[in-house]
Automatic annotation (TrEMBL):
Transmembrane segments: none annotated. Pfam families: ANAPC5, Apc5_N. Pathway: Protein modification; protein ubiquitination. Component of the anaphase promoting complex/cyclosome (APC/C), a cell cycle-regulated E3 ubiquitin ligase that controls progression through mitosis and the G1 phase of the cell cycle. The APC/C complex acts by mediating ubiquitination and subsequent degradation of target proteins: it mainly mediates the formation of 'Lys-11'-linked polyubiquitin chains and, to a lower extent, the formation of 'Lys-48'- and 'Lys-63'-linked polyubiquitin chains. The APC/C complex catalyzes assembly of branched 'Lys-11'-/'Lys-48'-linked branched ubiquitin chains on target proteins. Residues 30-167 form the Anaphase-promoting complex subunit 5 N-terminal domain. Belongs to the APC5 family. This is Anaphase-promoting complex subunit 5. It is found in: Cytoplasm, Cytoskeleton, Spindle; Nucleus.
Length: 756
């Protein structure tokens, strides 16, 4: 189930995806790239009436990222302009060429002419517009340059243009040796509007204030919403180090470094960057300027709070508790109720590691609502729902509580929490065994893909909520035998969440589990055994459980029983009720295979009591099917048939294809066993009904390629056809049985071997 407390990390940089950065001591300056932009703006003003509406729109959309972004090569800038307006790109190139190959006075004259853009009753550019502010900044920056600096700028412009000319010459030579169609294909693949790449950011000097703000804003937003489009951790850290080399007191760069270190689970670097962020925040006086005398104390208490969150994330609960106590003490001294509510939320998380208590959480929700903190209140409600779902509360009450939190989300436009809420509902329905409802919720979230666009044009769809929902969707498809569809979903997950991303472990676990189930269905136990190590690395409890299943399938009963006993004690200790029930069902099957049928009954009754107590309907139905199988083995098939009618409906409605097949196979077995005491005419009808049920079971088993169960069904059908005197059908089933029997390991085919 999705963790709903990931968003409790205090992030002072992000407010609706915008970084509030102050780069002290770094100002705007004129560079050759910015001069090329000035030429573009000048030519755009001249060619205004001649440009079509579509070309003007494209250029307007292109201008903002060019003005805000870092410097780029002239060749890339020309390609970007050519895509919007080829004629204008030629004019810009000619103007730059005349300036670069001319004299210094040509550049001087160019800057003198820029001021004319603001003159007249209807100026070409308004002073307060984005373009107007950029022009004014560049004119002021140029006017402040000394003569030697002006000469250096002119020399840099010449080098900037000559580098582009040399590249064009090299491209022409390459074109003579390259197929033109291949070259066009390469050019089409270049993404001019995509997120910044490492080579685009690297420049000869430091970024200006606006460039640094734009870079940090874009990368922070991408890390939050679409990590795959952000720079790689090593590349991003390299650029941040360059920023900090020119301005070590750039606090927000330290915070982005902290977020980047969290991506790769680097405890030392993340702690180091976080402490540096708050140190620089205090030293530069940024907090004091915005918060008066309280700024210093505010930085200290939020530093302690973030440090507690960091330790909690890495499992250092003792250190987290100490840091949290420090944050609470400072917040109480300053009477900061907002900080105290954040502390209370994290205190609940730490206390949850020791014992289950709803008191802190309920108090946190009430206080958050009182102080007008809907984000914290909603997270508290969802955590409360999650806890009560594990405690076995009724689904209708949980959905009512989530409905109340949804009202908060829509009222305050908390789109991220809407996604978390839907993912939570998907996980709850899966826990209760209602796969149809889970599928509906998953589709709802996926259809909300474009709910909110963030600043850099990336949709907010690469969050943990989407990873959870897509993983459940893949598992649901695999359970219904749609393995190709499940593979496509997992392939999409791998592209959206690469192995080095923070949510990749979710799909890795589901991928391993699906492969494990397929290998077990196909009878390839050695392959399933090799997958256990991967599952254990991602989830130790699941890994031990799967290892026991493999041992059971390989008839190593004593080893499997020892593992299950240890796992049962551990799961009871940590109150993992769902796994406790699954372990009990597995142990009951071990007792059947060891001919200890009477010992299996109390184990199954214990599992049934737990499933009903915790409202786990599907597990309860599965337990009833196992009880029916026990009654069949003990010689009371009529009673087994009676309780089967009570449990089979939820299995057929919400169950996996394999479970449906096993249920129908069990019904057929009970019908045949009950028919022994019937009259001849009634017996024939019962056997024909059993054959129909076996056909249905065969369809289900074939869908998931479960050859061992198919072999058992064919053997059973052949016996029934022989009893009814239907020789042709019997021979067909016998032939198919023989083919499967030669494929699979020969360990005998008893008439009644196990429920699954």
């Amino acid at each position: 189930m999705a963790s709903v407390h990931e968003s409790l990390y205090f992030n002072p940089m992000l407010t609706n995806g915008v970084v509030h950065a102050n780069v002290f001591g770094v100002r705007d300056w004129v560079t050759p790239h910015k001069m090329a932009l000035l030429v573009l703006l000048s030519e755009l003003g001249r060619a205004g009436p001649q440009l079509g509406l579509l070309e003007r729109r494209r250029l307007n959309r292109l201008l903002l990222p060019l003005l805000q972004g870092p410097d780029m090569a002239l060749s890339r800038l020309r390609k970007a302009i050519e895509e919007c307006c080829p004629h204008l790109a030629g004019s810009v190139h000619i103007r730059l060429k005349l300036m670069a190959e001319g004299e210094l006075k040509d550049m001087e004259q160019f800057f003198d002419d820029l001021s004319d853009s603001f003159s007249g009753t209807e100026p070409e550019v308004h002073k307060t517009s984005v373009v107007g502010l950029f022009l004014r900044h560049m004119i002021l920056a140029y006017n402040k340059l000394s003569f030697s600096q002006v000469y250096k700028l002119y020399t840099a412009l010449q080098q900037y243009f000559q580098k582009d000319e040399k590249k064009d010459g090299a491209d022409e030579n390459e074109m003579e040796l390259t197929n033109p169609e291949e070259l066009d294909g390469k050019m089409e693949k270049e993404e001019l509007d995509g997120p910044l790449r490492e080579e685009e950011i690297a420049c000869s000097g430091p970024l200006s204030q606006k460039q640094a703000e734009y870079f940090l804003s874009q990368q922070a937003s991408l890390l939050k919403n679409d990590e795959t489009k952000a720079l790689a951790p090593a590349s991003l850290q390299k650029e941040l180090n360059n920023l900090l080399k020119f301005n070590p007191d750039f606090a927000e760069a330290h915070y982005l470094s902290y977020l980047n270190s969290l991506r790769v689970q680097d405890v030392f670097s993340s702690t180091h960057s976080l402490l540096h962020y708050f140190d620089r925040l205090i030293l530069t006086g940024a907090e004091s300027k915005s918060n008066g005398d309280e700024g210093y104390g505010r930085s200290l208490r939020y530093a302690a709070l973030n440090l507690a969150a960091l330790h909690c994330r890495f499992g250092h609960y003792q250190q987290a508790e100490l840091a949290l106590q420090e944050a609470i003490r400072i917040a109480q001294e300053s009477n900061d109720h907002v900080c105290l509510q954040h502390c209370l939320s994290w205190l609940y998380i730490l206390e949850q590691k020791i014992f289950d208590s709803c008191v802190l959480l309920e108090h946190s929700v009430n206080k958050s609502l009182h102080f007008g903190l809907p984000y914290l209140a909603s997270l508290g409600i969802q955590s409360l729902v999650q806890q009560r779902a594990f405690a076995g509360k009724a689904a209708n009450k949980l959905m009512d509580a989530l409905k109340d939190s949804d009202l908060l989300h829509w009222k305050h436009s908390l789109s991220e929490l809407i996604d978390i809420s839907i993912a939570q509902k998907t996980a709850i329905w899966r826990l209760y065994g209602r796969s149809t409802m889970a599928l509906q919720q998953a589709q709802t979230l996926l259809s909300m893909n474009s709910l909110e666009a963030v600043n850099v044009g990336v949709q907010q769809n690469n969050t943990e909520s989407f990873a959870v929902v897509l993983c459940h969707l893949a598992e649901l498809h695999a359970e219904q035998g749609y393995f190709a569809a499940a593979s496509e979903i997992l392939k999409h997950l791998k592209e959206r969440f690469p192995p080095n991303s923070q949510h990749a472990q979710l799909w890795m676990l589901f991928d391993q589990k699906i492969q494990f189930e397929r290998a077990m269905n196909d009878g390839r136990y050695h392959v399933a055994d090799s997958l256990v190590a991967g599952i254990t690395a991602l989830n130790s409890i699941e890994g031990v459980y799967r290892k026991a299943i493999v041992l059971k399938a390989q008839n190593q009963m004593s080893e499997a029983h020892k593992l299950l006993q240890k796992l049962l004690i551990h799961c009871q200790k940590i109150k993992n009720t769902e796994m406790v029930i699954r372990v009990l069902l597995c142990m009951a099957e071990l007792y059947w295979r060891s001919s200890c049928h009477t010992i299996a009954l109390p184990v199954l009754l214990q599992a049934l009591a737990l499933a009903r107590e915790y409202s786990l309907q599907y597990l309860a139905s599965e337990t009833v099917l196992n009880l029916a199988f026990s009654q069949l083995i003990l010689g009371i098939p009529e009673q087994a048939l009676n309780i089967l009618h009570m449990a089979i409906e939820p299995v057929l409605a919400h169950g996996a294809v394999l479970d449906k097949g096993c249920a129908m196979f069990l019904v057929a077995k009970c019908q045949v066993a009950s028919a022994a005491s019937y009259t001849p005419q009634k017996k024939i009808k019962a056997l024909e009904s059993a054959i129909l049920n076996l056909n249905e079971a065969k369809t289900y088993f074939a869908k998931v390629d479960c050859k061992e169960q198919l072999r058992d069904v064919l053997y059973f059908q052949a016996r029934l056809f022989h009893t009814l005197g239907r020789t042709q059908e019997r021979n067909k089933c016998a032939m198919l049985f023989r083919q499967l029997h030669q494929e699979l390991p020969a360990h005998g085919v008893p008439l009644i071997n196990a429920f699954k």
